[in-house]
Recover the amino acids of this structure.
């Protein structure tokens, strides 16, 4: 539980972070907020009027005037900055946030205002984190907040262990590796989490509430996710969280960004994760580490889905069926066709295996010839130089080149494109530069969204034992792609 003034509040709150260059902008953001608790970041306000910032508020607020030496924007004197926060206390703000390293003596008497004592490290997880937390816990504070920057998932566990406190606290792991701390705050004992877009790894408050349903979650919520790197482009959280919501399941799906299979599995086990989608570059590495797989995964040597059971992790590969589904729907003849696979990673292995099994004459092309030769030799295909010679019946891009936000990049130049059908497994954006170039060259084109949704439905059913709401998942993926396109600079 956390304090709100002299009251206790149950459950995990989402704190919506509001900033602005003017007092009017901060007030407008405050009044638009969708969360039940709002942080007013006033350290970057040019015409600051503390009374006006607080007047007429409809929700409780945390007033923060962050110093530059703690990653904020306030560039006045320390006396002036602390005076601003003291003014917020005098005006009855529900919370003020004051840095652990600041002089907090003037806040000993603060009336109904609760004090958040915070500490931030935007570069690392300090080696002496546990000592720092113990020192903070000995302070006169109502809430202890610590935000650090892990370089790997295992350091999230370091933060979790250091923050095992018997008093209200907030533990935030910033950046891509720490998103689980923001979206599953109960795993870290946090009484609230922050939503916004002004800090590394933040998710907007609206997404936290509507997509991830953080305020509805608890210790009984089942945790699933996606692993690999990078994951900022992934539509999987949107799809799976929409499916959980549609079926009324108490579950959440988040990102576990990592390139290290051992680091990922250690963190997933410690956090009680039930299942994982696996993407590049971890598909082959995960296959080598799971306790059991099916024959298909063993044949391909890669998994794209994990499920945790008492005896350990089980792995499956649902990419092959998802990849072939749209080709079969369109009646594409694969037997005897010339099929070129771009890339030599885990997805390329699956595609090469599937096409060879369908009777295609498969060629594998990758910028690293040794990798192409290895994949080709394993599945009876041919390794060819990069770029492959045009004139294929089917070309499949399994590389991430062209994925949002690098939407103007193509794995092949226009002169190297020529053939019957180009199938780009990149799904965000819906039409990649490669597909546009292929269309201009007179080829048929096929995007990767249908494969994504198909394999995601298989994953969902394997995890939950319930039929996947395919239409809901497809709609959520479409909406996510549209949202990323609209948010692009």
């Amino acid at each position: 539980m956390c304090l709100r003034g002299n009251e206790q509040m149950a459950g995990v709150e989402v704190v919506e972070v509001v900033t602005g260059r003017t007092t009017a902008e901060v007030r407008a953001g405050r009044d638009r907020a969708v969360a039940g608790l709002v942080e007013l970041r006033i350290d970057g306000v040019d015409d600051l009027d503390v009374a006006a910032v607080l007047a007429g508020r409809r929700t409780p607020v945390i007033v923060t005037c962050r110093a530059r030496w703690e990653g904020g924007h306030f560039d006045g004197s320390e006396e002036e900055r602390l005076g601003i926060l003291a003014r917020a206390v005098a005006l009855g703000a529900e919370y003020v946030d004051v840095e652990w390293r600041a002089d907090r003596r003037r806040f000993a008497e603060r009336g109904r205002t609760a004090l958040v004592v915070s500490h931030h490290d935007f570069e690392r997880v300090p080696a002496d984190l546990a000592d720092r937390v113990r020192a903070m816990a000995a302070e006169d504070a109502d809430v202890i907040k610590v935000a650090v920057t892990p370089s790997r998932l295992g350091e999230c566990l370091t933060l979790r262990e250091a923050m095992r406190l018997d008093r209200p606290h907030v533990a935030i792991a910033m950046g891509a590796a720490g998103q689980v701390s923001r979206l599953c705050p109960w795993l870290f004992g946090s009484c609230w989490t922050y939503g916004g877009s002004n800090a590394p790894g933040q998710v907007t408050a609206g997404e936290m509430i509507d997509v991830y349903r953080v305020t509805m979650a608890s210790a009984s919520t089942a945790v699933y996710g996606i692993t690999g790197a990078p994951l900022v482009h992934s539509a999987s959280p949107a799809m799976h969280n929409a499916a959980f919501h549609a079926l009324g399941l108490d579950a959440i799906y988040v990102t576990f960004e990592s390139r290290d299979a051992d680091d990922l599995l250690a963190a997933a086990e410690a956090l009680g994760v039930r299942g994982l989608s696996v993407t590049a570059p971890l598909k082959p590495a995960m296959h080598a580490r799971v306790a059991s797989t099916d024959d298909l995964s063993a044949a391909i040597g890669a998994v794209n889905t994990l499920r945790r059971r008492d005896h350990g992790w089980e792995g499956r590969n649902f990419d092959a069926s998802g990849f072939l589904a749209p080709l079969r729907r369109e009646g594409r003849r694969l037997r005897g066709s010339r099929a070129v696979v771009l890339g030599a990673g885990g997805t390329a292995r699956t595609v090469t295996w599937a096409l060879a099994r369908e009777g295609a004459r498969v060629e594998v092309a990758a910028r690293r010839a040794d990798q192409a030769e290895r994949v080709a030799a394993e599945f009876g295909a041919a390794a060819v130089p990069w770029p492959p010679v045009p004139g294929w019946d089917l070309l499949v891009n399994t590389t991430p080149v062209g994925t949002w936000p690098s939407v103007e990049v193509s794995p092949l130049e226009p002169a190297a494109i020529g053939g019957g059908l180009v199938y780009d497994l990149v799904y965000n954006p819906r039409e990649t530069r490669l597909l546009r170039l292929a269309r201009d060259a007179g080829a048929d084109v096929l995007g990767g969204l249908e494969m994504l949704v198909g394999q995601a439905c298989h994953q969902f059913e394997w995890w939950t034992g319930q039929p996947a709401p395919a239409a809901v998942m497809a709609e959520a993926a479409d909406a996510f792609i549209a949202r990323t396109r609209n948010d692009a600079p």
In short: The first strand starts at residue 2 and ends at 4. Residues 470-487 form the longest helix (18 residues). Residues 4-10 have pLDDT under 50 and may be disordered. The chain has 17 helices and 22 strands.
